[in-house]
Amino acid sequence: MTILKVTNLSKEYDGVSAVKNISFEFTSGKCISLIGPNGAGKTTILRTLAGLLKPSSGKVTFTEMKQQADIRLLIGYLPQHPVFYSWMTGKEFLVYSAQLAFLTKEEANKRAEYLLERVGIAEAKNKRIGKYSGGMKQRLGIAQAIIHKPKLLMLDEPVSSLDPIGRREVLILMEELKKEMTILFSTHILSDADEVSDELLLLRDGEIVEAGTMDKLRRKYQTAKIELVFQ
Ligand code: ATP
């Protein structure tokens, strides 16, 4: 089932064309990677889908929008540089975030406990976030992004800054989460995209240059060549 349809989307910043007339559709329960080098337009697309930027032209349609009045309830978004309150513990941060999502104190507490387990940081729940590793922070960020049980989870370069262990843990978590929700994953590393995504959208200079499964893209290009372009 199509969950999201993007039609002829363009975004300009003061005359700079960041996204140029792109169209695509997402089927529910899949992980789709937006892959492209720095400046390709990945963040702009995610921020536009999240409703944080107004498109210059084009349309974004969520098929469940009729039942759900507020688009923010359908989407979970982890930005490329998430902001955490480093003096809070992981649990305090999630309880606070859940209350911002209108859960009662009791519900917020339950949801926080569940998500701390779900993303694998329950043992560190009473530790201050300032003491968390990069991978733990990203997992906490993912927990915050899904606190309101969204249908679509958008992750902007969630593993790019992590060491190999942190990267592995986050990719495994994404693999598990995609059983429950659609994931849009932005990255510039093809091997990461290959590991978790069902389909890829290759972006360059604000345009989709290729779309399809990894197998389809492999048949068309030599993987090594694409990696050289994006690394
Ligand atoms: P990165 O991986 O470096 O974040 P990206 O693929 O996410 O890159 P965007 O950040 O969406 O790409 O940027 C796309 C283009 O838009 C770039 O040329 C960038 O310089 C430009 N751009 C992004 N944000 C702004 C802004 N606020 N004002 C002006 N130009 C911008």
TrEMBL record:
Signal sequence annotation: none
Keyword Iron: no
Keywords: ATP-binding, Nucleotide-binding, Transport
Domain ABC transporter residue range list: 4-230
GO MF terms held by the record: ATP binding
Assigned protein family: Belongs to the ABC transporter superfamily.
UniProt-recorded name of the protein: ABC transporter ATP-binding protein
Species name: Virgibacillus tibetensis
